[in-house]
Target: Lipoprotein signal peptidase
Amino acid sequence: MKAVGFISLGLLWLLLDVISKQQFADLTPGTRVAAGVLGLMDLRLVHNTGAAWGMFSGSTFLLGVFSVVTCALVFVYFLVDLDRVGALETCGLALVVGGGIGNALDRFLQGYVIDFIEVTFMSFPVFNVADIGVTCGIVLFVLGLLAGRARDARGRDPEDATGLAHTAASGEEAR
Model:
C-alpha cells in the first residue's frame, strides 16, 4: 500500500507541476502575469537553463540527467527500505521524485525550466511547483528520519545512550 501512495502522490505532484507550467507556456519570458499575489509574490515567467541563483547556467541537459539519476536512486532507496520507511519519508520522497521528474521533463523537452513564482518580500530565485515539491519533500524526509530516530531511542535502554548493547553476565559490549 505504501508503494501505491508513493506513486500516486508523485504523479499528482508531477501533474500539478505540468498543469501550472502550461499556464505560462505561450508567454514571453519576463511577462508578469500577476503582481502582489497575497502580498507575498508575483507571477512572472522565467526560462531557467541552470539551477537556483544562476548556478550552472546553460547546463540544462546535464542538470536533467542529474535529476533523472537522483529520482531513480530515490525510488530504489524507497523500494529497498519499503518496510522501514515511514509515512513522512514516503510523502517526502514522492514529492522529490514528482518535482524532479517535472523539471527534468522541461529540461529535455524545452531546453529550459519554466519558473514563475517570484517572492516579493526577499531576494530569492524564481521557482515553480516542482521546486516546492523537491524542497518540501526533502524537509518531510528529514523530519521522518528524525521522528524514526526518536522512536528508536525511546525503545532503547535509557542507560545505553551510546546505542551499544551491554551484556549483564559478561560485561562485554556487543556491536
In short: The radius of gyration is 21 Å. The mean pLDDT is 88. Residues 129-155 form the longest helix (27 residues). Residues 40 and 120 are 6 Å apart (CA to CA).
